[in-house]
Structure formats: structure tokens, C-alpha cells
Amino acid sequence: MTIFKLACAALVLGTITAVIMLIPNWNGPGASTAAGPIDTLLDVMIVISSYVFMIVMVPLAYALWRWRAKPGDESDGEPIHGNTRLEIAWTAIPTIIVLSAAIYSWIVLEDIEAAEDPLPIEVTAQQYAWSFSYPEEGKVAEELHVPVGQQIALELRTLDVIHSFWVPEWRIKRDLVRQAGTPSADIDDDVVVTPTEEGTFTLVCTELCGYGHATMRANVVVESEEDYEAWLAEQEDIEEPTEGAASAGADATSGEEPPADLGALESEEQ
Length: 270
Description:
Elements: H1 2-22, H2 35-66, H3 84-112, E1 119-126, E2 129-134, E3 139-141, E4 144-147, E5 152-158, E6 163-167, E7 172-176, E8 190-193, E9 199-205, E10 217-223, H4 225-233, E11 236-237, H5 243-254, H6 260-269
Parallel strand pairs: 1-5, 4-10
Antiparallel strand pairs: 1-2, 2-3, 3-11, 5-8, 6-7, 6-9, 9-10
């Protein structure tokens, strides 16, 4: 009977907690086709976490109250021996929950990253600025402009330390990992996203990359196809790299030593 009451209490409190936790809009407004599935994924995880939290906390609170020490009782508690059924249960249930969450996340990720003739754009990060290249049009810019409703494929790369690409309204976040020599296929540095709302957003670096990390931002403008074409026509052409510049770029990405700024920051943190 006690177990039934505890289960009912955990169910009720878990429901109340889930309802309260679902009230805030944790991710803010969405502006891409990925926003809806990712927000739904977060809501599902919040509900699951609320019930798991109460399933743990309710028996814990009951045990602390039911078997609390009496005043003046300084003796040791009764020895506790293993319970095979209980150990199997608390191993199997979390495993099933984690695997289910992983499979659901995988399905969502596969769905939002399905490429359908996207517009390629190269995104380059360097302490503490972003730059954007449009290889098909031969243009380079300091702002990211994209046409609304057009799927874009962002190829991310860094010239120095690890940075992280994040546009909150798009719900897309991806680390930019420095690679020596030829980029490795083991590092996923591509992002596919389809903006659905026109407006000006902010690209934020979310990886601590040095003293100027907080200033490493760039404008992201989502606009109509006509405005996008007009803006693109005004941008500078991509310069062909000279032999010396190519060598310098290779040195920057080969990276045996971190940039002085990051090295100083890491030393100070230690």
C-alpha cells in the first residue's frame, strides 16, 4: 500500500512539475524549420526529466522521514544487503530511458539535416570575427545574408582556436574545430538550416575563445530573394590566394601552438 501511495505521489508531483516547467519558452522565438522539432524534443525531455526527478525524490523524502533517527539514538543503522531485483530495475529503467531519448534525438537530427539542394556558404571564424564566403557567386562579406525559405549549407572552419556557431532563433549550434592539414571527415563541420522568418538576427560564438570572446558576434540578415541578390551584388569578390597567403593559412590551421591570446588565457585560468 505504501508503494502504491508513493507511486501516486510521484505521478502527481511529476505532472505538476512538468506543467510548470513547460510554461516558459526556454528557447525563445524560432525562425527556422528546425526550431519546431527541436523545441518539441526539449519539451519531451522536460516531461521525462520531471517524472524521473519525482520518482527519485519522493521515495528519498519518505525514507528520510520514515527511518529518521530518534532523539538520543546514536547507534549505527541496520546493515543493508544487496537486492538483486532492485539493482536490475534501477539499471534497466535508466538504460531504456536514455536509449529511447538517444533514438528520438537521432531521428530529429536526421530529419532537420536532410539536404535538398542547399545554398553553400563558407563560414570562417578567427579571434574575434566572422567572415562569410559565397563560393558559387564568388563573393565574400562580413555579414551573413540568406534568402528566406532557402535551405543553406554552412561549411564551418576556424583559423585558430575552437569557436562555436550559434544563431538562437535557428536552434542550430555547432563547434568549429581547428584541423591540421586536410579537413578530416571525422569532424562534422557542416550545418544545414532553412530560415523561415525575415529579420536581423545575431550570430554568437558560444565557445570561450579568448579575451574578446564576448564581442565575437555578427549580423545575420534573412531577407527576400530580391534583396538578397541586390545585397550580394554589392559585396567584394573573393580574391584568389597568393602562394604566400596560402602558406600562411596552412600555418594558421596546422596549429602546433595555440594563439598567444588563448595561451595567456589558459595560463591565467590555471
